């Protein structure tokens, strides 16, 4: 009798279904609900994209107005700096400012390499007090051209200038005297500036004496060199985290610059 009772208990135990098992098939998800969620998510994404585009358009409009007012106040076009070039410079300046990579926001330097090297084509602007601090000669790389720079590179040993935005760093004394290190911020265009030893320095071949004697300004191995007599004025003014921009109307650069289009 005990053994028969034990067998019955065991049999009943194995026939009782567990709580995790269901004899009913799973209920398929409501396709209408899923579709509605996807549509709602897409609508939110579209609204966000439109809001970002509107904000960007508004920002560019404000920068354009800033470029116009600075150009008029400082009479920059009379000095050779085109308003559109300044607008590009200000776009990059504000983008770098947003990223927090500018340690000093008072100074913006623009080298307009669309101009002849015989022109004073470097402009140091105090954007806070709205003053043109310096307008100076600046040399380009020997690989970029003679009087005009028209070829640019990020490749070591190319001896070419590199377009784009830089952030100035600390000064040091080297073979060219007081010099200023700069970090290239445009990937693919000037991001190898440190590897190439691209710095701002003074040079005796960047002077009116050389220009009058040879009819053309001297060139460098890629560095933006300035007149020796201005080195001790300009370099302390732009050092320690200011925005430095080398411009040329290259459609490849203007359309692909990570700073301008970021």
Keywords:
single chain; 262 residues; alpha+beta; L,D-transpeptidase catalytic domain-like; eight-stranded mixed sheet; 8 strands; 39% helix; disordered N terminus
Account of the protein in words:
The chain is an alpha+beta fold. The protein has a single domain, classed as L,D-transpeptidase catalytic domain-like, CATH 2.40.440.10. 39% of the residues lie in helices and 18% in strands. A hairpin with a 2-residue loop joins strand 4 and strand 5. The protein is elongated and about 90 Å long. Mean pLDDT is 89; it is low at 1-23.
Largest sheet entry: 8 strands, mixed
Global structural class: alpha+beta
Shape assignment = elongated
- What would CATH call the architecture? Beta Barrel
Hey, roughly how much beta strand do the residues contain?
Answer: 15-25%
Low-confidence parts, pLDDT < 50 over ≥5 residues?
1-23
Q: Enter the CATH topology name.
A: L,D-transpeptidase catalytic domain-like
- The total of beta strands comes to 8
Tally the helices. Answer: 7
Q: What is the string of helix and strand elements? A: HHHEEEEEEHEHEHH
What is the structure about, briefly put?
With 262 residues, the protein is α+β, with helices and mostly antiparallel strands.
Q: What layout of secondary structure does this protein have?
A:
Elements lengths: L1 H14 L15 H44 L8 H17 L7 E6 L9 E5 L4 E6 L27 E11 L2 E8 L14 E5 L4 H7 L11 E2 H11 L4 E5 L3 H6 L1 H4 L1
Parallel strand pairs: 1-8, 6-7
Antiparallel strand pairs: 1-2, 2-3, 4-5, 4-8, 5-6
């Amino acid at each position: 009798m005990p053994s028969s009772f034990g067998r019955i208990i065991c049999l009943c135990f194995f026939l009782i279904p567990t709580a995790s098992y269901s004899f009913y098939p799973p209920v398929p998800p409501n396709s209408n609900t899923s579709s509605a969620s996807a549509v709602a998510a897409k609508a939110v994404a579209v609204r966000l994209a439109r809001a970002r585009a509107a904000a960007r358009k508004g920002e560019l409009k404000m920068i354009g107005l800033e470029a116009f007012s600075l150009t008029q106040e400082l009479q920059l076009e009379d000095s050779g700096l085109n308003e559109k070039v300044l607008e590009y410079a200000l776009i990059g300046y504000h983008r770098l400012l947003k990223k927090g990579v500018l340690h000093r926001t008072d100074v913006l330097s623009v080298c307009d390499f669309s101009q002849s090297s015989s022109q004073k084509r470097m402009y140091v602007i105090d954007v806070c007090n709205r003053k043109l601090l310096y307008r100076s000669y600046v040399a380009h790389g020997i690989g970029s051209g003679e009087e005009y720079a028209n070829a640019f590179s990020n490749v070591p040993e190319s001896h070419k200038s590199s377009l784009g935005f830089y952030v100035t760093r600390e000064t040091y004394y080297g073979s060219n005297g007081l010099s200023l290190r700069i970090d290239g911020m445009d990937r693919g265009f000037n991001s190898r500036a440190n590897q190439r030893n691209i710095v701002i320095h003074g040079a005796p071949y960047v002077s009116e004496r050389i220009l009058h004697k040879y009819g053309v300004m001297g060139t460098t191995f890629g560095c933006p060199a300035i007149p020796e007599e201005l080195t001790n004025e300009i370099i302390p003014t732009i050092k320690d985290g200011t925005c430095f921009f080398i411009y040329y109307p290259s459609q490849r650069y203007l359309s692909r610059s990570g700073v301008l289009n970021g």
